[in-house]
Amino acid sequence: MENSRCENCIVRQFNSLRAMNKEELKKVSDSKTTKTIKKGDSIFEEGEKLNGVYCVRNGVSKLSKLSPNGKDQIVKLATKGEVMGQRSIIAEESSNLSAVAVSDMEVCFIPKDSIATSLHKNPNFTMEVLRHMAHDLKEADDVIVNMSQKTVKQRIAEAFLYLKNNFGEDDEGFLKLTLSREDIANVVGTATESAIRIISEFKKKELIHTSGKRIGISNQRKLQDMVEGF
Q1: Rounded to whole angstroms, how far apart are CA atoms 130 and 125?
Q2: First to last CA, the chain
Q3: For residue 28, what are the CA distances in angstroms to 53, 78, 84?
Q4: What are the tens digits of pLDDT across the range 14-71?
């Protein structure tokens, strides 16, 4: 399929592959494999030795780390255009995070060998990879500050606003990306019971509305005020 070639793929404009030249892109395109991953399925596990990177063509993946008490902490939601696993390839370490699909996904697996030469020979590509890794570090810094300075209520309110701003709403006014209550708890770093209690409280105060697992934002202004500590 011609549109599944990296050269013609619009997704690469979002990531470091845009800095590759034609020959490099052809090499990547010839060696990659495209996989369909069902919601809930694992893409890779924490501690796994990755032999390449995963470029997200469609769908959303949660990247999480297992804490000593056996609870997952979701550190990032990777969406269309993002490359997963590049840090462990460059550091030559096993993966620090696990990746699980939170919606049906299409990902391209790019073997390590087909990007290694470009890392050594194409400074523009290396620079782009560094830029994306620096952005991930900045996001990680923000998560740390949020954890230490914001209450669980503030963090849940912020999570809902993040989901609306980044993934949008459906025709019925619900968030397009449906996360389980456990996933919401794992994003903000709290117990599932606490997340459920706070979601009920938000619903009573008419800040949100729910239908089964689905959540919709009823009062964005008040949620924003809560995040900002008003």
Answers
A1: 9
A2: 53
A3: 11, 21, 15
A4: 888 899 999 999 999 999 999 999 999 999 999 999 999 999 999 999 999 998 888 8
Assess contact for 156 and 188: CB atoms under 8 A. Answer: yes
H or E stretch at 222: helix 220-227
**Largest CA-CA distance found in the chain, in angstroms, rounded:** 58
Token representation of residue 158: 């912020």
Which one-letter amino acid corresponds to residue 11? V
- Cα→Cα distances 173→177, 195, 214, Å: 12, 21, 10
CA distances in angstroms from 48 to 28, 52, 79, 99, 138, listed in the order given: 22, 11, 21, 11, 24
> DSSP characters for 147-168?
HHHS-HHHHHHHHHHHHHHHH-
Q: Provide the residue type at 212 as one letter.
A: G
pLDDT tens per residue across span 173-221: 999 999 999 999 999 999 999 999 999 999 999 999 999 999 999 999 9
Query: What is the pTM (predicted TM-score) of this model?
Result: 0.89
Q: Using CA atoms, how far apart are residues 184 and 178, in angstroms rounded to an integer?
A: 10
Alpha helices in 49-190 (DSSP H): 86-91, 113-121, 123-149, 152-167, 181-188
CB 176 within 8 A of CB 187: no
Residues in contact with 92: Cβ distance below 8 Å, sequence separation at least 6, in sequence order: none
Map tokens 């979002």 to a residue: 14
User: How far apart, in whole angstroms, are the C-alpha atoms of residue 107 and residue 195?
Assistant: 31
